[in-house]
Structure to design on (561 residues):
């Protein structure tokens, strides 16, 4: 084969690209991973143990530089002085939005993508989610059900390592868990109060997270140092760099090419297949081509749609594989942030040990058994309880030695709940190419049109009420409910721009993430999602990616691709 020809090409090396690289190469395919950003070396790039005193701005961040290079990224509470290098440069990678419709697009552009900085919360979907669109005649029906994806959840969980507690809830299926992390004593107070006051309706469990609580497949157990989004030298949380890409490289069949900005896909109108991709070298700006028998787009929800929109051909004048007209449409993000906080009396002789990289979870309880009068679907809460003080950002005035001593004394136990709510898919929330603006590599940027509907606003309102109710049931004092009003995007769970479906007239992908129109093209990132559920989505992207790889390789073996 010529040097630039492979069995499979994977675009992107984030959460889904890492999985595609691992699965395809382990199944014997010579696989090329094209990644727009730089490579990452854990020994040099991971900085989770560097103290603030060693940082140039003492952990406060270079505000002047951030406001020029990362004005959008800095809005995410996930970015700090240590890890700003894992967030994209907004100046080189701009996007535009429709007037009056802000969208905060938080991205990572390096080998590993956002898997280096994600919050690691990992939950399965249930049939309550997969059947929701059909039940309510919204958008299109999912072409799969829980039983189709359950073995693939098992598969990815067993490799990634997910800590969690089995609870037997129909709306939040249990997984293949590593031992759960412990709740703090104030969390246990709240958990018991919820069980007592809302029996059969609400409950609280420890968060399910892609963090190792015991050694697993050559990676060490977490030592609770805390700031995971700066890297993890012991490889204890799941990321492409820590887990899937090393597994892929072990096969000897994978080539990872950083600084490879995919410009568009090459379509052969005779075979009606893609033959490869056009790339702009990120450093030299040289135009290159790579060829493959199958192409997996894993560049993230909006980037994958952007690549397809930019790959228009005479046959597909509005974007490759877009005979349905749905490409770019139905963009979703979870609505987030409403909730409440309060102080839990008692346990003043106890405190936390280490920095648990996980919180608690209150699974969805709205519209599970009873219909809510104000909105469809539901939400879950994440949160935690710790002792008030320096590290929880207490606003304590003071100066000098006495102040330093006061800061060391732990304050009251503070419990907070923050909701993550389902967003409905709507055709009018969409991404297109901006005809007037290009990025640093001359590629037209995405123009995003997205806004919440009354349903998401009603969910956000309800979150504040029910969070306060649970705190009140736990005897909390100084309860502060709050209703959030963040622009879409900030929850960083964007999905839906190339949805799956049974009918090629109304969906871009089939039940195996394969483009209806172009059989050797697969899109396995969040673009494929048909609805958003209310749980963090990345575990589902992983399972769908592994499932699609299995399907593609079987099709190739049968000579159908
Ligand atoms: C702070 C933060 C917290 C989060 N917390 C959670 C959580 O707790 N749970 C959860 O489920 N999710 C969470 N997420 C979301 C999660 O990170 C994403 O859902 C996930 O990373 C998506 O995977 P992906 O492979 O689609 O995209 P990414 O991981 O973003 O990877 C995409 C890759 O494609 C590359 N790329 C893009 N365009 C091109 C191109 N043209 N050519 C070549 N390469 C390209 C990018 O450089 C990038 O490396 C969080 C995200 C952030 C930022
Ligand atoms: S808290 Fe655990 S997972 Fe996070 S960086 Fe530290 S060791 Fe790694």
């Amino acid at each position: 084969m010529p040097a630039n020809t492979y069995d499979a090409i994977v675009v992107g090396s984030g959460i889904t690209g890492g999985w595609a690289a691992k699965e395809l190469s382990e199944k014997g395919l010579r696989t090329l991973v094209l990644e727009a950003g730089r490579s990452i070396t854990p020994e040099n790039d991971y900085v989770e143990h560097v103290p603030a005193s060693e940082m140039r701005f003492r952990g406060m961040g270079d505000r002047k530089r951030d406001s020029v290079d990362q004005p959008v990224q800095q809005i995410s509470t996930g970015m700090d002085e240590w890890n700003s290098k894992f967030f994209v440069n907004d100046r080189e990678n701009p996007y535009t939005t429709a007037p009056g419709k802000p969208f905060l697009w938080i991205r990572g552009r390096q080998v590993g993508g956002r898997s280096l900085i994600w919050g690691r919360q990992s939950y399965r979907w249930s049939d309550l989610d997969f059947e929701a669109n059909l039940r309510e005649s919204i958008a299109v029906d999912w072409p799969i059900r829980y039983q189709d994806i359950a073995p693939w959840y098992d598969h990815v969980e067993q490799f990634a390592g997910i800590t969690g507690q089995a609870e037997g809830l129909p709306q939040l299926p249990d997984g293949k868990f590593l031992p759960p992390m412990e709740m703090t004593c104030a969390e246990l107070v709240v958990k018991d109060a919820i069980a007592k006051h809302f029996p059969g309706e609400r409950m609280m469990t420890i968060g399910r997270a892609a963090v190792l609580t015991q050694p697993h497949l050559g990676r060490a157990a977490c030592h609770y140092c805390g700031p995971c989004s700066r890297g993890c030298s012991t490889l204890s949380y799941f990321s492409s760099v820590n887990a899937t890409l090393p597994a892929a490289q072990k096969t000897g069949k994978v080539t990872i090419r950083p600084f490879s900005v995919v410009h568009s896909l090459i379509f052969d109108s005779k075979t009606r297949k893609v033959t490869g991709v056009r790339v702009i070298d990120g450093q030299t700006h040289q135009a290159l081509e790579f060829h493959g028998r199958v192409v997996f787009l894993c560049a993230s929800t909006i980037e994958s749609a952007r690549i397809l929109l930019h790959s228009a051909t005479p046959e597909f004048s509005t974007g490759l594989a877009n005979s349905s007209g749905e490409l770019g449409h139905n963009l979703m993000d979870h609505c987030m942030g409403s909730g409440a906080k309060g102080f839990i009396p008692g346990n003043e002789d106890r405190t936390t040990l280490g920095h648990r990289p996980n919180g608690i979870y209150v699974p969805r309880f709205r519209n599970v058994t009873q219909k809510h009068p104000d909105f469809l679907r539901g939400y879950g809460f994440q949160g935690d309880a710790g002792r008030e003080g320096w590290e929880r950002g207490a606003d304590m005035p003071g100066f000098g030695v006495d102040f330093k001593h006061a800061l060391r004394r732990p304050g009251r136990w503070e419990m907070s709940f923050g909701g993550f709510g389902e967003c409905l898919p709507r055709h009018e929330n969409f991404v297109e190419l901006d005809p007037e603006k290009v990025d640093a590599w001359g590629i037209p940027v995405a123009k995003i049109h997205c806004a919440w509907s009354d349903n998401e606003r009603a969910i956000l309102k309800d979150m504040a009420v029910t969070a306060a109710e649970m705190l009140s049931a736990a005897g909390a004092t100084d309860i502060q409910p709050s209703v959030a009003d963040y622009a879409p995007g900030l929850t960083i769970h964007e999905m839906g721009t190339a949805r799956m479906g049974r009918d090629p007239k109304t969906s871009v992908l089939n039940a195996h993430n394969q483009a209806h129109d172009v059989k050797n093209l697969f899109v396995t990132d969040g673009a494929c999602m048909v609805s958003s559920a209310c749980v963090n989505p990345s575990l589902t992207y992983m399972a769908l990616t592994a499932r699609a790889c299995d399907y593609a390789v079987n099709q190739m073996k049968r000579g159908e691709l």
User: Anything to note?
Assistant: Residues 11-17, 34-37, 76, 78, 106, 108-109, 113-115, 117-121, 260-262, 298-300, 303, 307, 492-493, 525-526, 536-538, 541 surround flavin-adenine dinucleotide (ligand 1) (CB under 6 Å).
